[in-house]
Amino acid sequence: MLRRVVQAGAAAAGAGLRQVRHVSGVAPIAEQRQTLEQFGAYVAQMLPKYIQAAQVTHVNELELMIPPSAVVPVLSFLKNHTAAQYKVLIDIAGVDIPTRENRFEVVYNLLSVEYNSRIRVKTYTDELAPVDSCVGVHKAADWFEREAWDMYGIFFTGHPDLRRILTDYGFEGHPQRKDFPLTGFTELRYDDEEKRVVCEPIEMAQEFRNFDYTSPWEQIQSGGTVTKIV
What we know:
This protein has about 230 residues and is an alpha+beta fold. The protein has helices spanning about 1-20, 30-45, 70-80, 140-150; strands at about 55, 60-65, 90-95, 105-110, 115-125, 130, 155, 185-190, 195-200, 225-230.
């Protein structure tokens, strides 16, 4: 009996995502939003142990919030379940919010070609706690996780080759952290006497100045509503 209920729920969720394909124009936006809400509720129902929150943002994007230990099971579910089919990992992004206890957010952007649908999965960590690597689920995560490690210092457990990918050999620190100075700590220059590139502590040729970058032509767009699902 339980199996029939699950199959019926999966069929309904899959049918809902298929409807997103055909949504166009302004009128059906509410329809599309409702479909995303239903699918988010379905995923939360199927994975109650892992889904901490689900919401549809003001731009009609579905987001799932999960703990660091749930990365592999949740991404595996979204990839292999017939009602989801999120087989393409578009990107892994890092966000640094130093005022939080878990200052880093790790954001997984997924695409379902089958249903022409996107989903965003978020987890959190700090400077020391590791996040499970999802290279075993999505091969594309290899370089994405290396970039997050290089820029933010987010450590991924189980990564086959976790080393820097954008900065130079011997680089110290993580440039995308909010507490990393914009000027950095060292600079590279070509030394005419030694006939090679040397790395030295940075020296500022002039004092910092305060610049006003505010533009009267740029306005912050007012956001719409965010629908909390669970």
